[in-house]
Design goal:
Blueprint: E1 17-19, E2 22-27, E3 33-34, H1 36-49, E4 53-56, E5 62-67, H2 69-81, E6 92-94, H3 109-121, E7 134-137, E8 149-158, E9 161-170, E10 176-181, H4 183-199, H5 211-218, E11 283-286, E12 292-297, E13 302-304, H6 305-317, E14 322-326, E15 330-334, H7 341-351, E16 364-366, H8 380-390, E17 399-402, E18 414-421, E19 424-431, E20 439-441, H9 446-460, H10 467-491
Parallel strand pairs: 6-7, 7-8, 16-17, 17-18
Antiparallel strand pairs: 1-2, 2-5, 3-14, 4-5, 4-13, 8-9, 9-10, 11-12, 12-15, 14-15, 18-19, 19-20
Helix pairs in contact: 1-2, 1-6, 3-4, 4-5, 6-7, 8-9, 9-10
């Protein structure tokens, strides 16, 4: 490649990533949010030095696109001038309402800070790969269930008080549960797990840990001093399990653990869209003192910088004091009086933001596509807008629209994927964007093809059957035929 970070790495300010529309940088403010004035300053900088496209990712990071080597350096200097501190350490992520949600089980921030300090003290920051992450979820109105992590800690109430459920390699539904422990032990187990990952190399993740290692982590709180255990680990990071230790029942020692449910392809713009359910960060969320957080989402995670500026200006005028980035490609506006929320929602809707969790655009993952991205073969956002407007009733599943086979917007499998290629807009069924399409049609007419698939769903699904279940029953051949048929009918 070049001096810039390879695809799959984390494009921090100091290491921008080459994409089809120039360099991309990602920022995670240490404070968790920005004042409206700071967001305006950052967006103005994006307009000066990039292509004016800003994104909030599925994990709640802020991205600026279309930079050059020279302009990326200028952007970094302006971020410093704005005194916006950004994380450069191992990501230890908390929910967007952490510490201010009256419904959360526990404030996750003290434990998150404790883990960050322990990881740094253990010298792991440079030894772990850029995609390794930790989630500390205090519960409440906006959980972190949809965010994948190598280690996740979730607050839970027990007879002994608040404890932390420690899991590895997955999201809130499929992560491998290890043990429930107090705060100190949970921190020790997290650092021990990350040390084991580091010892396997910078490409490793928690999914690569062996059953023996998982069993030792599960029995960690029963063992002698946690701070000693990593030092007696052999080169592969495995720790022999004492006969006196009784690991949790879901750790089965005889099977290999090389395929734990976390994908190395889970990128920042991806997110769990299938299975499980967690509340979207869109709408009003009650806080203490009769105040509310107002959540609005960026359609497909992307918005022109000038529209972000307009929203931030309105928010500042109406009394908003902080704008937090939220997993799920959203922003949370905080501090404004309750009477300001309705006019803020109106302004956001006028600017094109998503203000309702039922908006069909929340079910579509779409990359910038052409003309924004040089790698794109189809106008993804135009296709997405047409499909969302015409087929909202059947969008109960994730539709992925990818400008090329790289699948940046949703690296995992989706129920249906439209992918741009040399032969036009291919349709991939229940797979990733790089899979072989089941059928093709011209890129400009892809929305019509999905419309025909939607018509088939409406006419053939049983009473009470979901759209996704109907597609599964019909199968890829019938779906591809319906997708292609629209073009056939057009030629008649």
């Amino acid at each position: 490649m070049n001096a810039f970070s390879r695809r799959g790495a984390c494009p921090a300010l100091s290491a921008p990533m080459q994409t089809g529309d120039g360099l991309l940088v990602r920022l995670n403010p240490v404070a968790g949010g920005l004042s409206p004035k700071l967001l305006i300053g950052l967006a103005e900088s994006a307009l000066r030095h990039g292509n004016g496209i800003m994104e909030v990712t599925a994990r709640g990071s802020l991205q600026i696109r279309g930079l050059t080597a020279e302009s990326a350096a200028l952007l970094a200097a302006e971020v410093d001038a704005l005194a916006i501190a950004v994380h450069t350490d191992v990501p230890v992520e908390t929910g967007p309402l952490a510490g201010i949600d009256p419904q959360e089980i526990a404030d996750p921030r003290p434990l998150a800070e404790r883990i960050r300090a322990a990881v740094e003290d253990a010298g792991l920051t440079q030894r772990l790969g850029p995609k390794v992450s930790v989630v500390v979820d205090g519960g409440g109105q906006l959980t972190m269930d949809a965010v994948t992590a190598d280690v996740r800690l979730a607050a839970t109430r027990t007879d002994a008080g608040v404890r932390w459920r420690v899991s590895v390699a997955g999201d809130g539904w499929n992560a491998r549960r290890l043990v429930t422990a107090d705060e100190g032990s949970a921190c020790d187990i997290t650092v021990a797990a990350l040390r084991m990952v580091a010892e396997k190399g910078r490409e490793a993740h928690a999914r690569d840990l062996s059953e023996r290692q998982l069993a030792s982590l599960a029995g960690w709180h029963s063992m002698a001093p946690p701070s000693v255990l990593p030092d007696i680990s052999p080169s592969r990071g495995e720790i022999a399990l004492s006969p006196m230790v009784s690991p949790v029942s879901d750790v089965v020692k005889e099977k290999p653990a090389s395929k734990l449910p976390i994908s190395p392809l889970e990128g920042e713009m991806s997110g769990r869209a299938e299975g499980g359910a967690s509340r979207k960060p869109i709408g009003l969320f009650p806080l203490a003192g009769n105040t509310f957080a107002l959540g609005v989402a960026l359609p497909y995670g992307s918005m022109p910088a000038d529209k972000l500026i307009a929203l931030a200006q309105a928010a500042h005028t109406l009394g908003t004091t902080e704008i937090r980035l939220a997993p799920g490609r959203a922003l949370l506006l905080l501090g404004q009086p309750p009477a300001a929320n309705q006019p803020l929602q109106h302004t956001a809707a006028t600017l094109g933001f998503v203000i309702s969790p039922t908006d069909p655009r929340t079910r579509i993952a779409a990359c910038p596509g052409t003309p924004a991205c040089a790698s794109g073969r189809i106008a993804t956002r135009d296709i997405a807008e047409t499909i969302a407007a015409e087929n909202a009733d059947i969008l109960e599943f994730t539709l992925h629209i990818s400008g090329c086979a790289k699948g940046c917007a949703h690296p995992g499998p989706a129920t249906l994927t439209i992918v741009g290629g040399e032969n036009g807009a291919g349709l991939v069924v229940n797979a990733m964007a790089k899979a072989l399409p089941a059928g093709y049609r011209p890129g400009y007419d892809a929305a019509r093809g999905i419309g025909r698939v939607a018509a088939m769903i409406r006419s053939t699904r049983y009473q009470g059957e979901t759209a996704a279940a109907c597609l599964t029953r019909l199968g890829p051949v019938a779906i591809a035929e319906a997708y292609r048929q629209a073009q056939t009918e057009k030629r008649k």
